[in-house]
Prior knowledge:
The complex is a heterodimer. Chain A has 17 helices and no strands. Chain A is mainly α. Chain B is mostly helical. In chain B, 71% of the residues lie in helices and 1% in strands. In chain B, strands 1-2 form a two-stranded antiparallel sheet. The interface between A and B is large, with 115 and 107 residues.
Amino acid sequence: MSQLQQERSRSAGQATRVPAALATGPRRAEARGAAGRVFRKGTTWLLALVWLVVVGAPIYYMIVASIEPTSVYLSANPWFPSKGVTAANYEAVFSSGIVSYFFNSVIVAGSTTILSVTVSLLAAYAIVVHGSRWTGMVFRCFMVGFAVPIQALMIPLYLAILRIGLYDSLLGLILPMAAFSLPITILVLVNFLRDVPRSLIDAMRVDGAGPLRVLIRLVLPLSWPAIATVAVFDLVSSWNNFVFPLILTQSPSQATLPLSVFNFEGNHLQNVPEIMAAVALSAVPLFVLYLVARRRLMAGLAAGLGA
Amino acid sequence: MAVAVGRSPRRVRVWWPAWFLLPPVALFAGFVVLPIVLAVLLSFCSWDGSSAIQFSGLANWRQFIHDPSALAALERTGVLVIASWLVQVPIAMALGIFAAGRQRHRAVLTAIYFLPMLISAASLGILWNLLLSPVNGGVTYASTHFGLFFLDHQWLSDPDLVMGTVIVLVAWEFIPFHSLLFEAGARQIPRSIYEAAAIDGIGPYRRFFRITLPMLRHTIVTSSTLNLVGSLTVFDLIYTLTGGGPGQSTRVLALAQYLEGFESLNFGYASALALVLGVLAVIVSMLLIGVTGFGKMRSQSEGA
């Protein structure tokens, strides 16, 4: 069954409304285009499979190489596991202290997300519910932040963090990461809060509830979908952030996962299987998240498109 | 209603919005706005990272105009931005439209398509560096043992090829993200339009050019903006893949300002380079938003 027919049968409600006399038109056109349709379908699937290889092969390679014994890697076919499949590379990565980097990443990504979402919710509530000229101006200032790339601010940020004594600390990573995630977080929450019925908010305020109480008792429970979406985005982007740890930390004890994998590569240049194990391990948490909450994760990543 | 009139919030000067906005504004001012100001100031100073910062007037900017390697970096950045746009938008659009189909097997395929989004760009650079390694890297092995002779090149060490490699790998990194955008855009096109077109006997190519493409125009604008700014500022992948080398072959502006600062310790001159990068990024996004209207971009995501 062609895609078109499937689509049509799914929306049968609309299809039945088509006058019967018109129906001969498409049938003739479809008969003429049958060969073309098979060709197009074949091409589509061929290209889809090509892209599957383009995306899947490197990830497959990473996994195969990571279970290959170091001694045979350089002489064996790297695309197929040899007989001596081993977990030794993963053990080596674990003994290099990846667990502490993992916890650093958890602390940094978790705190960044909580901080960013909390203050953004306050901002979004003030911008939407108060909605005066000056809150609108503040909102536009935040939106200008969209256009400012992190990469162009590495040096002044390094200088600022150095001078306030937060260099080489996790807090020195959390604060800038949260600050840079504010524009997107505020935008998503503002767009969502605009749809919260004003009458509900006004009713609570008439009953004497203060703004904080309205926010916690009414707006917060209503906003969970938007909060979850934008929290996922903040979490993934701070988890994978490489630039800030690169320029704002120096001791291994403060490194997060992406930086530790890079450092690991520098220290094990000849040992490809171990590097691959490190890369694979650093991706495991988000892969697990992807498996258990694909829809939420994709919605969160799409929110990153922001504007 | 009658009760509310007596103490309407408009009459009384209220302070809670100021308290609510204080934490986010402080955070933003301290770590985004202040660095922007510092970036401008630093570009008129010289600083080696440890001794005192000294005002040096226009020295950095004079150096910039006469620095052939900076202009080469600027040119490489331009090539990367334009090539990335040309490569990524069509592929991302095709994948997004494909992923918007609702058959089950498509869902399985697209679940794999999006995997690169989950791996940090730094890790992707490392992964591809090893894949393309001439010492039994996966691609090298495939070119000699699987008969894929067209892959038999020094992808990372041939100065004439390496920028092409970077363009392809940046595309590999970003296409999943953009196809996600196009998937959302394609899902919003009402199916009834296609049904009407099919009833009128309009063929698939005309359906694409007359319906799909015009209906996706806001998505194309959003994706292009993010694409241009994204490839202008791409750093992690190139830094871990080539470090700007071999020689300076992949030293784009984002890398040039980092290396000039954090490796050569010319933080003043590096700030001038970074400022050029930042201004270019702001101009590109302002131009695109100005041409197309921010409101349109916003209504796009509100529907999603």
